[in-house]
Amino acid sequence: MTKVPCGTLLRQASEWQVACSALAELQSLRLEADVVAKNSAIAACARGFAWPAALQLLEDLAVPGEVSYTSVINACGNGHEWSLAVHLLSLMKSSWISPSRISCNATISACEKGQAWREALSLLDVGSCDVVAYSAAMSACAHATHWQEALELLSLMKTTQVQPDVVAFSTGIFACEQAACWQGALELLCPDPVAYTSCIGACALAQKWEMATHLWELLAQPSKLGIQPTAMSYAAVAFAHGAARRWQQVLELQVQVRKLGWLPSGMYSAITRGLGGALQWEKALALLPEMQALGPAPDEIVCGGLIAECARSWQWSQSLSLLDAMSKSLVTADAVTNSLLLGVCSRAQHFAKAVPVLCKNGHLRLAGAAAVAAHAVAQRANAAGWRMLSDVAQLARAPEWQQRSKDIEPLSSLESRGCLEEAAWRAWGKK
C-alpha cells in the first residue's frame, strides 16, 4: 500500500470527522497516509473531544511515536478520561519511548481536568518539571479542595529553581478561594485579572465584604493596575454584594454589564444569584423578560438559579411556575433544582402540588432529600399494605436516593428529609 504525505491537508481539517473520513477514503483507494497525516488526524480528534477515535487511530499505527501518544493523551484529557491518559503514558515507557516534557505535562493536565490530584502529584518528577506541570498539578489539587497541597507545590517550585508565573500564582489564589482562605490569597496577589477575581471570591466566601469591595474598586480602574476586569470578575463581585445583602450594587453591576455588551447566560446567572443572596427574588425574576428579549434564551443554569433563589425566599408558587415555564421551553431542570423545589413546597405544606409539575415532563429524576424521603414513605406504605400512587413508587425506585445524601440550602440535609417525609406522609396517606 502506497503511503501518501497529506499531513498539511489534514492539519487544515476543521473537524475530526472530516480528518477521519479523509483517512478512510485514502484506505478505500488502497493508499495509506503517512505518520504525519495520521498525527494530524489524531490532533483533530483531540480538538473535537473525540478520544475514542483518537485511540483507534493510535492502534492503527504500526509504530506509534512520542508525538502520536501525546496527541492521544491530549484527546483523553479533553474528554476527561484521565485514567486512560495515565495508562498511555505508562504504555509509552513500556514501549521504550521516552516521554518528553510535553507528554508529561499533557498527562498532568488530563489529571487536572479529572480532579485526580493524587495521580497528578505522582507524575511530578522534581528537577525536570516546568511551571506548566506544577500549575496543572496545583489546579488539580485546588479543584479537589486540597488547597494546602496546592500551596505546598507553589513553595516547592521556588526550591527547585522553577520560577512561578502569573498562572501559578493565580492557581494558588484559586486554591485559597476554595477554602475561603482570604489572607493566603492576598499574600499571593499579583496584577492579573484571574488573580484578583479569585481573591474577591475568597474574601466573599470568608465574609470579608469590605476587602472584596476594595479589590473590585482597584480592578475596575484599569489606570491603577493596567489590567481589565473579566466577566468572571463581575460575577465574583456580584456574588460578594449579594452575600452582603447589597442588592443595589448588584443592580448597578447589571447596568455596567449591559453597557459592556456582556449578555451571556453566565452573567445573568451571576446577577440573579447576587440578587437572590440579598433576598431580592422579585428583582431577580424581573430580569427574565430582559433575557428573553435580548438573548440568549435562558438556559437550565439561569432558570435553575432563579428557582433556587425563589426557593431560598420560600416562594414555592413562583418556583413551580418557573419549572413549568422551563418545561414548555424544553429546558431541563437538574436534580438539585428539583430537590430544592420539593423542599420549599414541603415546608410550605404544598408538597402534593409539586409532584404533578415534576411528573409533567419527566422531572422526577430527583436528588438527595426528596428521593430519600419518598423511599422512606414507600417503605412505610408497603409495610402497612397501603397502595401508593405510581409517582411515589417512581420516586422510591429512583437511583439518585442512594447516590445523593446531601442537599443544599434553604434546608439542612436532616431537616429537609424530615420535612419531606412528613409532608409526603400527609399528602398521600392511606388509600
Automatic annotation (TrEMBL):
InterPro entries associated with the record: PPR_rpt, TPR-like_helical_dom_sf
One protein family per Pfam: PPR_3
Keyword Cell membrane: no
Ranges occupied by PPR repeats: 65-99, 130-164
Keyword vocabulary terms for this entry: Repeat
Name of this protein: Pentacotripeptide-repeat region of PRORP domain-containing protein
